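If you are new to this repository, start here. Below is one unmodified record pulled from the training split, so you can see the exact layout before writing a loader.
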Amino acid sequence: MDQNYNEENIQTEQTDQFVCSVCHQPIKPEYYFCPNCGHKIKEKPLSTSVQTQIGIYAYSIILPFILYISIKKWPAMKYIKSNDQKTKQIGYIAMTLIILSTISIIWFSFVGTKKMIQSSVDSINADFNF
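And here is the target side for that same chain:
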């Protein structure tokens, strides 16, 4: 009887473990990579540390200044697509910052260009009004 009980425990323990789809070795559910073959099992959760948030937000503010050259490196889209609510919130804040930053760049460019044109016109008019 004890022997059957032990066999049932062993069988239950084996069914509770996950198995790598590549090398078929047992793995723990919290693993991100198989320790035997290195196969990626699941995505590592995105960082929500204060330092990471500051970096993403700063990048979102300066991205329009560098003309979206490195938009592929902008991490906010990964954060928005995440299942974690806090991570999504970080992504949405970064998206808001990039939109506001883009609007401000356009506005400052428009106002600066308008002032430059006006000063050129004033300078030309002053030259003809000796």
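Two things worth knowing about this chain: Strands lie at 18-19, 26-27. Residues 50-128 form one domain.
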